[in-house]
């Protein structure tokens, strides 16, 4: 796990477990060495010393080989430690206390409920070893039971804390990724907005001016009889026509690619075909009223609304089909996007965790409001969704 606020807690727990194993094993070794020095006998103390060293060595193997201790290898490692502990506990009562770190290892390595079952078996074994060495006493029974209870509580708490830390780390990664995506989207939106603004300025100034010049020169051609002046006027008009064509090409390049043909219905047809081909959701397009040229910002806003709505349909609605209806009215134009998906509660659409498409709806509303229009969303769980975007035709003037 990467570094987080809980990393010191996990580090302290691991260090505490290592210290417990080394301390208890060292206690057994020291006691056995003192006994050998006092009595001069190596049996059974020599066996205890050898198995204690083997126990510590087996435990230490998990450090350099931690990345390889996966699945059955962990179980083999835990089984080896358990067998070595059983040998030690059978030889000396001092080794019985090593059962406490085994509790934590079993809780860490085994899944619930098998880890709890393993702790219960180790507890019974520890009680029997205490009874075999010192007879049945209250301390010999209550000590392992209390230790097992504390170990289970700490072990399960550690699991819950570790899961919480992993969930936090995952959420942080998601938030960082989302922030990067939003930053990229904002940069892209800013770039597109500036391109659209330049296209509008070119259309409203240079293109209109060149068009007017061309008309004036054409009128002057018709009214003059001088041959040389007529040639000059014709050359000037052709030059203005060439520059006007170049300016319109620049405008098309700066406009959204889907609107290159200057036909919003055709752009919506292409979008529907692409969506159907990519997602399998059938998308139908209908045009109501008499199609008329619209201001570029209005066409762009409607195309973006269609793109965002269909993206929500594909990603979140679980719909089989959707319909786009473009309605031309006297002073406004409306785009309706209707799907037969799962729907949602519009009242909770601001909850981004439950409705990931709510950001797109908010952006759609902001774009429409900037043009003097409005967005209406009608939906209910299990009854599909309808999005209506209405813009005044003069909204982009």
How does this model look, in words?
The protein has 397 residues and is of the alpha+beta class. It has two domains: 1-255, no CATH class; 259-396, Heat Shock Protein 90. It is built from ten helices and five strands; from the N terminus they run ααααααααβαββαββ. The chain has helices spanning 7-39, 45-61, 72-91, 99-109, 114-134, 138-223, 227-254, 264-279, 296-317, 358-370; strands at 282-288, 321-328, 332-339, 374-379, 385-392. Strands 1-2-3-5-4 form a five-stranded mixed sheet, with helices on one face. The longest helix is centred in the middle third of the chain and has 86 residues, at 138-223. The protein is elongated, with a radius of gyration of 39 Å. It starts with 6 loop residues before the first helix and ends in a 5-residue tail after the last strand. Mean pLDDT is 80; it is low at 350-357.
């Amino acid at each position: 796990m990467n570094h987080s606020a809980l990393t010191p807690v996990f580090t302290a727990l691991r260090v505490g477990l290592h210290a417990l194993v080394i301390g208890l094993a060292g206690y057994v070794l020291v006691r056995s060495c003192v006994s050998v020095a006092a009595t001069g006998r190596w049996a059974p103390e020599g066996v205890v010393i050898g198995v204690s060293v083997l126990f510590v060595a087996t435990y230490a193997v998990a450090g350099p080989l931690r990345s390889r201790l996966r699945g059955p290898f962990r179980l083999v490692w835990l089984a080896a430690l358990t067998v070595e502990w059983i040998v030690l506990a059978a030889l000396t009562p001092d080794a019985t206390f090593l059962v406490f770190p085994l509790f934590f290892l079993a809780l860490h390595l085994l899944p619930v409920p098998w880890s709890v079952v393993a702790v219960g078996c180790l507890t019974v074994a520890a009680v029997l070893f205490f009874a075999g060495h010192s007879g049945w006493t209250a301390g010999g029974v209550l000590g392992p039971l209390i230790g097992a209870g504390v170990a289970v509580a700490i072990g399960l708490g550690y699991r819950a804390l570790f899961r919480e830390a992993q969930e936090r780390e995952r959420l942080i990664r998601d938030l960082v990724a989302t922030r990067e995506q939003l930053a990229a989207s904002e940069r892209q939106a800013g770039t597109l907005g500036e391109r659209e603004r330049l296209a509008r300025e070119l259309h409203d100034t240079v293109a209109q001016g060149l068009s007017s010049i061309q008309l004036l020169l054409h009128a002057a051609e018709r009214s003059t009889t001088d041959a040389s002046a007529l040639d000059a006027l014709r050359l000037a008009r052709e030059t203005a026509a060439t520059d006007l064509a170049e300016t319109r090409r620049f405008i098309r390049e700066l406009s959204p690619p889907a609107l290159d043909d200057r036909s919003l219905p055709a752009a919506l047809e292409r979008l529907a075909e692409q969506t159907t081909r990519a997602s399998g959701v059938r998308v139908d397009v209908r045009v109501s009223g008499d199609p008329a040229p619209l201001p570029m910002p209005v066409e762009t806003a409607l195309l973006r609304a269609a793109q965002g709505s269909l993206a929500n349909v594909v990603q979140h609605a679980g719909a089989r089909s959707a319909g786009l209806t473009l309605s031309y009215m006297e002073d406004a134009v409306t785009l309706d996007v209707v799907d037969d998906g799962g729907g949602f509660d519009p009242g909770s659409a601001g909850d981004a965790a439950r409705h990931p498409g709510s950001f797109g709806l908010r952006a759609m509303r902001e774009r429409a409001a900037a043009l003097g229009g409005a967005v209406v969303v009608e939906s209910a769980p299990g009854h599909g969704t309808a999005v209506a975007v209405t813009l005044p035709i003069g909204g982009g003037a």
